[in-house]
Amino acid sequence: MATALCRQLVSSVFTRIPIKTLPFRSATCSLQLISRRLKSDKDRPKFDPDVDKPLFPGSRSEFTEKLQFIMPESYDGIPVYRVMNKDGEILNPEEDPKLGQEKIVDIYKKMTLLNTMDRIFYESQRQGRISFYMTNYGEEGIHMGTAAALDANDLVFAQYREAGVLLYRGFTLDDFINQCYGNHLDRGLGRQMPVHYGSEKLNFVTISSPLATQMPQASGAAYAFKRKQNGLCVICFFGEGAASEGDAHVAMNFAATLDAPVIFFCRNNGYAISTPTHEQYRGDGIAGRGPGYGMATMRVDGNDFFAVYNATRAAREMAIKESRPVLLEAMTYRIGHHSTSDDSSVYRSADEVNYWDKKDHPIGRLRKYMLRQEGWWDQTREEAWMKETRKSVMQALERAEKRKKPKVDTMFTDVYKDIEPHIQRQMNQLNEHLKKYGEHYPLKNFVDK
Questions:
Q1: How far apart are the C-alpha atoms of 394 and 390, rounded to whole Å?
Q2: Which residues of 140-173 are buried (b: 16+ CB within 10 A; e: fewer)?
Q3: Which whole-number Å values give the CA distances from 58 to 55, 122, 294, 401, in the listed order?
Q4: pLDDT of residue 255
Q5: Which of 3, 17, 45, 301 sits a CA distance of 20 to 30 A from 68?
Q6: Can you tell me the distance from the alpha carbon of 356 to that of 367, in angstroms, rounded to the nearest whole number?
Q7: Strand, coil or helix: what is 259?
């Protein structure tokens, strides 16, 4: 009966049979189909065979008798929106979000705390204390600008270089380092690589290594938000390298055709894993693709906290009020190596890196802005705060090192909701093995209860 009804509902959408003629109505199913039909009817151009215009479905265009290709070099690039220059000067006072001293100082402290955490965690990997790490050098403005503009209940799908978003939302230093060490206080119980953070409480979906897998998931989650009418949006971070994956096309096309309230936020840091942008694509960056998908699009200076904040806030409002996806491309620079497995000196010069580190760093730019405001910040406060951040990170590191690894049995749990028989057999086999040969394993380093 249900199957037959669904067929009738679908048929009614395309043949215009009134829903009231069906034997009974499923409100959710029928209203969804009706809304999709009405939306499709509204968007479809009016068919008028008497007008000498292209009537082909799928384009908005006029006829031309001129044989001419559209050449990418004949168009100027999409402009980069900014609020302050690299000297920390607000260029147009009307664009200043006027967040106030308390908010800006707090943002600056979080940016510098993230930077200090990166330096110490990176060195700990070099010392063999953790297995892997990825720094966020040069992209701190993106993290804090987006996080400050979002609602705490907006859902975040990250790639792997958005630790600052979690830090802003309340992820502690202990949370970060416990995950990197994979100890028993790690929320993932050591099952993930370091820096693959996640927090259900903070609405931050756990990171996975494969590029762009989070993008179709974000489109689906945003569509669910649309149906739920919860007044929230989804933000999906990805890099310009991930934009070359097929999942990126799938995600953006689905989001556009389903009118899903999602912000696709591209961190274009110039080098992906190790591939410079001139080898990654030929068009005008990633923002140039937005209009092709039918999405509102903006390119923003990713080293300008205020520009990122304003752009994200406006994108969020548009995504929710108009129920549509928005593409933001933040132009920035990855100052650090891609990861501890990378040596970026192979594909770029030290002078290039030094420019972005010393001359146009998002932290330095915001510091210059603060110094322009009387009484907001000074060198004495800077030195005291940097000393405090280093001490806090080192203490968290020491605490994490002393904690034991998760119970051995946890490698078998959470694969399924309940432990399946074949998983239970594997667990039993391991436990029997450890009873016989336990002295050959460092079991004292693991929680035993």
A1: 6
A2: bbbbbbbbbbbeeebbbbbbbbbbbbbbbbebeb
A3: 9, 50, 12, 59
A4: 98
A5: 45
A6: 15
A7: coil
| Cα 115 from Cα 393, distance rounded (Å) | 11
Give me the phi and psi of 209, to 5 degrees please. Answer: -70, -45
pLDDT in tens, 404-425: 999 999 999 988 999 999 999 9
Judge whether 400 and 183 are in contact, CB under 8 Å.
yes
Cα–Cα distance measured from residue 259 to residue 138, given in angstroms and rounded to the nearest whole number = 33
Residues catalogued as catalytic = 123, 209, 338-339
Amino acid at 136: N
Q: Are 124 and 194 in contact (CB under 8 A)?
A: no
Give the pairing of strands 262-268 and 80-81: unpaired
Q: Where are the extended beta strands (E) located within 270-410?
A: 296-301, 326-331
Contact 262, 234 (CB under 8 A): yes
Q: In angstroms, rounded to a whole number, what is the distance separating the alpha carbons of residues 267 and 277? A: 12
Q: How much is the pLDDT for 75? A: 83
Residue 184 to residues 92, 132, 275, 405, 434, Cα–Cα distance (Å): 50, 18, 37, 5, 20
Mean pLDDT for the stretch of residues 225-253? 97
Mean pLDDT value across residues 11-23: 39
Which secondary structure element, helix H or strand E, spans residue 313, and what is its range? helix 305-321
Q: How far is CA 372 from CA 42, 132, 358, in A?
A: 51, 39, 19
pLDDT tens string 346-356: 999 999 999 99
Q: What is the pLDDT of residues 365-389, one digit of tens each?
A: 999 999 999 999 999 999 999 999 9
pLDDT at 165: 98
Cα 445 to Cα 441: distance, rounded to the nearest angstrom = 9
Provide CB contacts within 8 A for 432, sequence distance 6+.
Answer: none
Spatial neighbors of 391 by CB under 8 A, at least 6 apart, are none
Handedness of CA 61, 67, 73, 76 (dihedral sign): negative
Q: What is the mean pLDDT of residues 119-131?
A: 96
- Answer whether 0.90 is exceeded by the pTM: no
* pLDDT tens track for 280-308: 999 999 999 999 999 999 999 999 999 99
Q: What is the dihedral of CA 413, 210, 356, 81, to 10 degrees?
A: -110
State what percent of residues in the chain have pLDDT above 90.
83
Query: Which has more pLDDT, 46 or 442?
Result: 442
Beta-bridge partner residues of 169: none
Rounded to whole angstroms, the Cα distance separating 264 from 253 reads 12
